[in-house]
Specification:
Layout lengths: L3 H24 L9 H20 L5 H25 L5
Helix pairs in contact: 1-2, 1-3, 2-3
């Protein structure tokens, strides 16, 4: 069996990933939208935001699980918007 901190990190990473999956399913217009690069990018960012949430709030409880799901759902939008603002415009 894995140690408790490792299980906790895996749990929060999966919750962030599930939040990203929910975002992709809600915002996809057609079936081909599920297999595009943007969907895979959001899955990776959702898992990363869940892992970061685990580092910041490492209390293994129900409200933190819900907030981790929300961070996977909404956090990817925040990260994408932040990177768009930080990249200088080309032209």
């Amino acid at each position: 069996m894995l140690p408790e901190p490792t299980m906790q990190a895996i749990y929060f990473t999966v919750m962030g990933l599930l939040g990203a999956v929910a975002y992709i399913l809600v915002n996809s217009d057609e079936c081909k939208d599920l297999t595009q690069f943007d969907s895979y990018k959001r899955l990776a960012l959702g898992a990363i935001s869940g892992f970061i949430y685990n580092i910041l709030y490492s209390d293994y409880s129900f409200p933190n699980s819900i907030m981790c799901f929300v961070s996977g759902y909404m956090g990817t939008t925040f990260i994408v918007a932040l990177t768009k603002r930080l990249v200088p415009p080309s032209g």
